[in-house]
Amino acid sequence: MEKDFIEELRWRGMLQDLMPGAEELLHKEKVTAYVGIDPTADSLHIGHLVSIMMLKHLQECGHKPLALVGGATGMIGDPSGKSQERVLLTEDILRHNVECIKKQLSKFLDFDSSEPNAAELVNNYDWMKDYTFLAFIRDIGKHITVNYMMAKDSVKKRFSGAAGTDGMSFTEFTYQLVQGNDFLHLYKTKGCKLQMGGSDQWGNITTGTELIRRTEGAEAYGLTCPLITKADGGKFGKTESGNVWLDPAKTSPYKFYQFWLNCSDEDTSRYIRIFTLKTREEIEALEKQHKEAPHLRVLQKALAEDLTVRVHSQKDYEAAVEASEILFGKSTTAALRKLDTETFLSVFEGVPCSEVAASEFNGETSLVDLLSDKTGIFASKSEVRRALKENSLSINKEKATEQTPVNRDMLLNDAYVLVQKGKKNYFLIHAK
Questions:
Q1: What pLDDT score does 83 carry?
Q2: What is the DSSP string of 202-259?
Q3: Is-catalytic flag, 373?
Q4: Helix (H, G, I), strand (E, B) or coil at 107
Q5: What is the crossing angle of helices 298-311 and 314-326, to 10°?
Q6: Catalytic residue check, 190
Q7: How many CA within 13 A on the CB side of residue 168?
Q8: What is the mean pLDDT of the chain?
């Protein structure tokens, strides 16, 4: 028996607003529904995952998902939740971004199936590019009053001159009409009766349902999910270095894995419901295990594995786990040598680093000199010798002796040496 889409969203904590009649419609027929994504970058970030997972559950429940990339709306910028107007993008950049986003979406949605509910990617630039301004204000603008548009929260906040806002341009004011027209177009061409999105989209979604009602005399529906927050009130998906992206060139698989691994217990309980396809029984079993031994972070590990494998690959996940273990002593020189430079530097981010001329790695510099005079890792040569005597000094995860040769073979990725004093004190040497 196919799962009930609304029930699925409910128990996962993914349902906020639901228009009357939407649940009945989903019980009655196979529904085509869409989510809009603004292609403002050439990668999605984890903030997009909630609406993508809504489309995934929709497809799993037998309905048809449409992912709309806003090639046209991306040229305007959605004012919802924003206090400043966005920088507008060129057509070429938008086209490139759309291509990249489709590749990422295909890791979640089935675009290739011969089933009637195969996912489709649509771009609103395709139907907006030929619209003239006069035709748009005649065909669409006349159906929605300015009073109706002004009543939306996203517009009201910007018009009220709230602190940190700078008013609203006509361009942004018309955004809800353009998005409403998308819904109307998809209703007429694809039989799409449902639009989904984050709760900040409710105003734009209802403009679309109103436009369909006034132009077609038909009912269409909206559904939103809560905006994801962190238990401590911090913004979800943001780290000190910015967004957590799905593109490995922007956020390495190791950093991506670490993001989920480091979530609090409270957040992980919510995230594992929202971002994975695990069943209620599987999640409850994991939570029980986690409660019995919280220090093992069973829940975080399950979440991090599921998402790293889905977004990247099994191989990337295994490499991320191996890299994570390096800091906890369970590692070897061979494991270190397998890390690419980016992952290596991610693992040892924040570790003190000394720069040394590459010419020192000539087989003639002694280890004692390298670690004292050349780098200052130790205050004196006698301190280095004491550490060597106590067997508490490792180079690239191997115990060092006074005879350990300082040559090119010592360099990881032809540039780095990892020095470890005792169990937890790490230092890097960068040969330049």
A1: 43
A2: HHHHHHHHHHHHHHH----EEEEEPPPB-TTSPBTTEETTEE-BSSTTTS-HHHHHHH
A3: no
A4: coil
A5: 140
A6: no
A7: 27
A8: 88
Q: Which of 16, 40, 104, 171 is catalytic?
A: 40
The angle formed by the CA atoms of residues 46, 190 and 117, to the nearest 5 degrees, is 60
Minimum mean pLDDT range among 64-68, 203-207, 233-237, 307-311: 233-237
Token pair recorded at residue 319: 């490499």
User: What DSSP element (H or E) covers 344?
Assistant: helix 341-347
Known catalytic residue at 86: yes
Catalytic residue among 16, 17, 86, 102: 86
Q: Which of 163-172, 274-283, 316-325, 358-367 has the highest mean pLDDT?
A: 274-283
Q: Which two tokens stand for residue 429?
A: 């040497």
Told to judge if 312 belongs to the known catalytic residues of this protein, a careful annotator would answer no
In terms of C-beta density within 10 A (0-12 exposed, 13-18 middle, 19 or more buried), how is residue 342 classed? Answer: middle
Work out the end-to-end distance of the chain between its first and last CA atoms, rounded to an integer number of angstroms.
Answer: 63
Report the 3 state secondary structure along 288-316: HHHHHCHHHCHHHHHHHHHHHHHHCCHHH
Catalytic residue among 32, 179, 224, 375: 179
Residue 354 CB burial class (10 angstroms; 0-12, 13-18, ≥19)? middle
Task: Reply yes or no on whether 45 is catalytic.
Answer: yes
Residue with tokens 């009543």: 151
- Judge whether 112 counts as a catalytic residue: no
Residues whose CB falls within 8 Å of the CB of residue 173, separated by 6 or more in sequence, listed in order: 79, 149, 155
At 31 the pLDDT is: 97
Least confident of 212-216, 333-337, 353-357, 381-385: 333-337
Residues 39-44 have a mean pLDDT of 89
Residue from 136, 174, 140 nearest 154 by CA: 174
Closest CA to 175 of 308, 318, 74: 74
* Secondary structure class of 186 (helix, strand, coil): helix
